[in-house]
Write a structure and sequence with these properties.
With 183 residues, the protein is mainly alpha-helical. It has one domain. Strands 1-2 form a two-stranded antiparallel sheet. It has a two-stranded parallel ribbon with strand order 3-4. A hairpin with a 5-residue loop joins strand 1 and strand 2. The longest helix has 15 residues. The protein starts with a helix and ends in an 11-residue tail after the last helix.
Length: 183
């Protein structure tokens, strides 16, 4: 049932949001020269997939977890995208094609070995990664791998359709601040 909602909501979001996506891509083109960011992430069953987002950091920024990136790497437009969470909109494509869900554990990088190990112990990779979830609305990010894995596991065990929509709604209205960036 959730996959059906993922498909329908992401399709509606991409179609209705196309003018916004186009506008953000154009502004991003002037901001960084390359508005779309693609990065290999850890997916369901530890399989790699290519996550798409709007670029919020300078093009030459190292590929590290957000909490390890330096705040000076984030552009002015990137700060706006992060604050409003609009940088996540292109991930609706990942949801549409079935690589992600709207709600699930945020996909990490393959170089985050501590996070991968913790999530593997908690069986988090049994589900699709998501754009938002319980950890995100409670401001728990990848800088605390064991806590994040435990919260992700709790979310998976207790997921209902009602909670699915609750996490989406809380994200849309601005609950949670996203991943920390070191100053």
């Amino acid at each position: 049932m959730i996959r059906l909602f993922d498909f329908l909501l992401s399709l509606i979001g991409l179609v209705c949001g196309f003018p916004i996506l186009l506008l953000l891509a154009l502004v991003g083109l002037f901001d960084t020269g390359s508005p779309i960011y693609r990065q290999e992430r850890v997916g369901k069953n530890l399989k790699p997939f290519t996550l798409v987002k709007f670029r919020t950091m300078k093009k030459d920024t190292a590929s590290v977890a957000t909490h390890l990136a330096n705040i000076s790497s984030i552009t002015k437009f990137g700060r706006f995208l992060r604050k409003t969470k609009l940088d996540e909109l292109p991930q609706l494509w990942n949801v549409l094609v079935g690589e992600m869900s709207l709600v699930g554990p945020r996909p990490g990088l393959f170089n985050q070995t501590e996070l991968i190990s913790s999530r593997d112990k908690h069986n988090v990779y049994a589900v699709r990664p998501g754009i938002t979830g319980l950890a995100q609305i409670n401001e728990i990010d990848m800088s605390t791998p064991e806590l994040l894995a435990a919260i992700d596991s709790e979310m998976i065990r207790t997921m209902t359709l009602k909670k699915y929509f609750k996490y989406i709604l809380l994200t849309v209205i601005g609950k949670g601040s996203g991943d920390r960036v070191k100053g």
